[in-house]
């Protein structure tokens, strides 16, 4: 049977009970389950605020927008980011007419603080750090660098659901942390995400912006009496970015299993590591010493990546690539050549199948096939 890169596992019966509650109550939109999930997420992460969204892409946009608004950044402002990410990270900067400046990656495929420091100018206002595959790389050094240079820090934690650093959920040192609960992430729904601002006012503005700039949501209005219900104000030209109760219903169930699921992912990664540890042609991407990765991805580097992908497909194994150097895309090509390590990695990396339905014999088969064709 074909072995896919990602296959989400849902606790179907439990999800259906939660969804049924929404349907019977007649409340599928913002509020009700979204509020419950936000509370549970705050408990799980220890963050002071959490706002449930329809995607991490929306969250990244809001993080950039709100920090720009609140700190009066002009349109010459720059944000330092990574070329080795999903384009959402970098599009968020462009949505606000700011300039993405790319810093190169390190051995963890995360942003290298040495290159970040080199790329800081008078125009730099913030850094976006992406925890690629759930790994936190040199995040702590990036935190220090941001403090020293008075820069805002946005953590794209789309892959980091459940990641710990020194035993704790990282992010309290950032200004905004964004998670993705898209269909194939570690906490899968269908499409949704979470934004956690550390600052209370930022969180309050965010809640208005996710519902068209209206200063009171329908759920809180539903308990108001009579004419007052409709007397809300509109403060911003906001967006339709909030999450809904059906997605939150699924997320509430998935959250209960997140740490157990991630423990199994860790086991899969261990089996891969064991399988590859004597192979000279295959380089595995290390996890930072203090990081307990969510293991969203298992990435290897090989010299014949494209041929290997084809050979694996012939053997009914379907890996992926995370990511292609974003400066290869027309939109970001102005920065081509500025991040040589990313450009080189981008030609060599491959993500092997990583999901809860895989068994030891699947990993053995993948390892054996990769070793056979890797150069
Ligand atoms: C690093 C990274 N950032 C942002 C996103 C966007 O997430 P979403 O699909 O929830 O908008 C993704 C999704 O794949 C991602 O991998």
Report the uncertain regions.
none
H/E order of the elements?
Answer: EHHEHEHEHEHEEEEHHHEEEHEHEH
Neighbour order of strands in the largest sheet: 2-9-8-6-5-3-4
**How much of the sequence is in beta strands?**
5-15%
Largest sheet: 7 strands, mixed
Task: List the defining traits of the structure above.
single chain, 39% helix, alpha/beta, binds pyridoxal-5'-phosphate, 3-stranded antiparallel beta sheet, 375 residues
Give an overview in words:
Helix 3 (56-71) runs parallel beside helix 4, helix 3 (56-71) crosses helix 7 (200-209) and helix 10 crosses helix 12. Helices cover 39% and strands 14% of the residues. The radius of gyration is 21 Å and the shape is globular. The protein has twelve helices and 14 strands. It is α/β, with parallel strands linked by helices and 375 residues long. Strands 2-9-8-6-5-3-4 form a seven-stranded mixed β-sheet, with helices on both faces. Helix 6 links the parallel strand 5 and strand 6. It has helices spanning 12-25, 33-45, 56-71, 87-95, 113-119, 139-148, 200-209, 218-221, 245-276, 305-314, 340-346, 360-373; strands at 3-4, 51-53, 78-81, 99-102, 124-130, 152-156, 164-165, 176-180, 193-197, 283-284, 291-292, 298-301, 317-318, 349-352. It binds pyridoxal-5'-phosphate (PLP). Pyridoxal-5'-phosphate binds at residues 55-57, 85-86, 88-89, 130, 156, 158-159, 180, 182, 193. The site of pyridoxal-5'-phosphate has 14 residues, from helix 3 and helix 4.
């Amino acid at each position: 049977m074909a072995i896919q890169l990602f296959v989400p596992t849902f606790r179907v019966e439990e999800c259906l009970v939660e969804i049924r509650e929404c349907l019977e109550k007649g409340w599928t939109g913002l509020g009700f389950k979204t509020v419950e999930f936000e509370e549970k997420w705050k408990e799980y992460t220890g963050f002071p605020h959490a706002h449930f969204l329809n995607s991490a892409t929306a969250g990244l946009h809001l993080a950039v927008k709100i920090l720009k608004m609140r700190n009066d950044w002009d349109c010459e402002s720059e944000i330092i980011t990574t070329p080795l990410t999903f384009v959402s990270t970098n599009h968020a900067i462009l949505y606000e007419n700011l300039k993405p400046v790319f810093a190169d990656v390190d051995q963890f495929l995360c942003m290298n603080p040495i290159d970040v420091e080199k790329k800081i100018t008078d125009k730099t206002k913030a850094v976006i750090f992406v925890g690629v595959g759930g790994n936190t790389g040199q995040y702590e050094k990036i935190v220090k660098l941001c403090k020293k240079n008075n820069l805002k820090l946005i953590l794209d934690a789309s892959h980091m659901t459940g990641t710990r650093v020194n035993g704790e959920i990282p992010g309290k040192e950032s200004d905004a942390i964004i998670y993705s609960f898209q269909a194939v992430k570690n906490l899968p729904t269908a499409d949704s995400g979470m934004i956690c601002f550390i600052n209370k006012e930022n969180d309050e503005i965010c809640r208005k912006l996710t519902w068209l700039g209206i200063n009171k949501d329908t759920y809180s209005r539903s308990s108001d009496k009579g004419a007052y219900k409709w007397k809300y104000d509109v403060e911003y030209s906001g967006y339709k970015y909030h999450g809904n109760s059906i997605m939150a219903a699924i997320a509430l169930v998935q959250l209960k299993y997140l740490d157990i699921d991630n423990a199994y992912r860790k086991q899969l990664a261990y089996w891969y590591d064991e399988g590859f540890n004597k192979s000279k042609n295959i380089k595995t991407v290390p996890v930072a010493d203090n990081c307990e990765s969510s293991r969203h991805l298992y990435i290897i580097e090989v010299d014949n990546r494209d041929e290997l992908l084809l050979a694996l497909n012939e053997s009914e194994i379907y890996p992926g690539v995370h990511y292609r150097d974003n400066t290869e895309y027309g939109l970001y090509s102005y920065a081509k050549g500025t991040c040589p390590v990313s450009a080189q990695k981008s030609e060599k990396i491959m993500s092997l199948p990583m999901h809860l339905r895989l068994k030891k014999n699947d990993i053995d088969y993948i390892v054996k096939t990769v070793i056979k064709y890797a150069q």
